[in-house]
Amino acid sequence: MKRRVLLILMALVLVFGISACKKKEEPKEETKKETKKEVVEEPEEEEVVEPDAANTNTLTGLPTLTDGAIGKRPVAVMINNAQAAMPQYGISQADIIFEIPVEGDNTRLMALYGDYTQVPKICPVRSLRAYFASYSEGFDAFMIHWGMDDTMQEYFDALGIERFDGISGAGGMFGRDEAKQAAGYALEHTGYVEGSMLPQVLTSAGRRLDLAEDKKDNAFVFNKLDELIPADGNSCNKASINFGAQSATLNYDEASKTYKKDMNGSPQMDSVTNEQLAFTNVLILETQISVRDEVGHKEVVWDGGGTGNATGYYISGGKIQKIFWSKDANNEKSRIHLFDENHNTLKINRGKTYIAVNYANRGTFE
Predict the structure, then answer these.
(1) Residue 45: what pLDDT?
(2) 78 vs 88, 93, 110, 144, 343, CA distance in Å?
(3) Which parts of the chain register pLDDT below 70?
(4) Residue ranges of the DUF3048 domain (predicted)?
(5) What is the pTM of this model?
(6) Residue 145: beta bridge partners?
């Protein structure tokens, strides 16, 4: 009996032992190791800026120059803007037009043409004021005028302006519009320059035709070709500028994406092309303007103070934004610098530009 009990106990021990061994030998579940994928950051693509075509007009940023004008200097022409002188002609082809007050707070225009071989016949040509020269020098332009403010002769000489004065004839380019004279226009409203003669006159006079090295790039920093980016601000379908005795109004035309110009409430027309003046860009540059003599000649702070803090407005594509502007202090040959409100360089659209240099706070916008 004792032996049977012993055998039973031994059998139980053997069974439990085998069971325990099996439990120990059961393989553990393998834990899968997570493999972290290495994230490789792609480098940001740099904006590829295509170089402008060789025939790019430096005033507009558009490829419109004739072969003979590539790398050559532009032309600035002083134009009578008195109400009694209307209508003008030859002005619709201008690439840039400045409008600035003169005596009595009337205004005068300075029209710039980027292709010296394509300057049209222009009338009425008028006399030169010092501050217009301060701007034309920034474009390395030839200056065409009829008379000038003689009290600034030393200033003009010091600048070394290359100019042609209708009073001296200048190679036969100048004349009087007989039709206007017959219609009763005062003599000062009838002077013209025959722009087609300019290449011959420049060559005969041995004038430097090539642009200065620091003026061979675009006059402004432009947006890309074939894109029109509205100004970074509120809508602006109408900009009205009060110069004092005269006013300018720029109305946005959605179809052409340009601002069409009125003068004193009426469309400002070119009587030969029958086109209203129209601009892709409108710049209003505010500065200090005062009277400097008994005649009423103006003193214009043409560099905006030279600090980059003069205020202004950029209008394009149906919108307006406040900007800052300057020219290098006491350096007429410097370019006009444009900045946004964060003082970053402002890009403008390619095309024709109207620039009003005026008293502060004389603009209203709708």
Answers:
(1) 59
(2) 12, 14, 5, 6, 32
(3) 1-49
(4) 59-202, 241-355
(5) 0.87
(6) 165
Which tokens is 328 given?
């290098």
Record the tokens describing residue 313, joined without a space.
């407005």
Write the CA distances from 118 to 9, 222, 350, integer angstroms. Answer: 123, 23, 19
**CA gap 44, 190 in Å, rounded:** 60
Alpha helices in 186-307 (DSSP H): 198-204
Structure-block tokens of residue 8: 């039973």
CB 152, CB 158: distance < 8 Å = no
- The CA R_g of the chain, rounded to the nearest whole Å, is 36
Query: How far, CA to CA in Å, does 300 sit from each of 122, 135, 292, 305?
Result: 26, 11, 9, 10
Q: Is 106 in contact with 81 (CB distance < 8 Å)? A: yes
pLDDT at residue 328 in the model: 97
Please give the pLDDT value at position 39.
52
Give the separation between CA 140 and CA 135, rounded to whole angstroms.
9
Buried b (16+ CB within 10 A) or exposed e, 15-29: eeeeeeeeeeeeeee
Q: List phi, psi (to 5°) of 24.
A: -70, -30
